[in-house]
């Protein structure tokens, strides 16, 4: 979130520097914005793997990477807008998308202190359980470890252990020597 907001704000500052004919400062802010965007791209892999369950984790990381790279491919066409319109238009578009992405990150659940979900049901319960959005400090810095013995809710742990499970195992023929 900080990297996306940082990139958007730094790009808007560089727009004002270009408008005021301070090209050296504009270049510095553009490079800092590029560093923030690269940092957010690298965080994509970590956070995507934390949000998705084990059974779909590889596919989810791959799809997230593919969509991010589609955005990178479209950025070349947005940059060409500077030839047709004012040179400040592409930077403003990039800044707005970066700020929008930073705002959307606020809607994702906080994953710190929780075990990684193993099933899709674990992911659904993680989202439904007392959601701690990433934008607040609850759970992020104040209570770094969640001491809940049932992190995804009690309904997953209501699995009854009856003799029915053992009887089904007896129906399987055993190997004899």
What does this structure look like?
The chain is mainly alpha-helical and 177 residues long. It is built from six helices and no strands. The chain has a domain at 1-107. Mean pLDDT is 76; it is low at 137-145. Helix 2 runs antiparallel to helix 3 and helix 3 runs antiparallel to helix 4. The protein is elongated and about 85 Å long.
For the terminal residues, how far apart are their CA atoms?
62 Å
Flag low-confidence runs: 137-145
Following the backbone from N to C, one meets helices and strands in this order, namely: HHHHHH
Radius of gyration of CA atoms, rounded to a whole number: 24 Å
Determine the number of helices (DSSP H or I, runs of at least 4 residues).
Answer: 6
Give the strand content: under 5%
Mean pLDDT level: 76
Helix content: 55-70%
Assembly level = single chain
Helix-strand makeup class: mainly alpha
Count of extended strands:
0
Largest sheet composition: none
Which descriptor suits the 3D outline? elongated
């Amino acid at each position: 979130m900080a990297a996306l907001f940082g990139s958007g704000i730094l790009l808007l500052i560089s727009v004002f520097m270009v408008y005021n004919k301070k090209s050296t400062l504009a270049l510095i802010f553009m490079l800092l914005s590029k560093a923030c965007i690269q940092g957010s791209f690298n965080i994509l892999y970590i956070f995507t793997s934390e949000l998705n369950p084990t059974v779909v984790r590889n596919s989810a990381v791959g799809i997230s990477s593919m969509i991010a790279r589609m955005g990178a491919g479209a950025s070349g066409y947005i940059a060409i807008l500077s030839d047709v319109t004012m040179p400040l238009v592409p930077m403003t578009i990039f800044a707005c998308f970066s700020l929008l992405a930073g705002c959307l990150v606020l809607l994702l659940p906080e994953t710190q202190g929780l075990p990684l979900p193993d099933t899709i049901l674990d992911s659904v319960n993680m989202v439904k359980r007392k959601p701690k959005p990433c934008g607040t400090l609850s759970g992020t810095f104040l209570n770094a470890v969640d001491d809940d013995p049932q992190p995804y809710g009690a309904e997953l742990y209501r699995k009854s252990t009856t003799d029915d499970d053992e009887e089904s195992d007896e129906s399987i023929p055993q190997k004899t020597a």
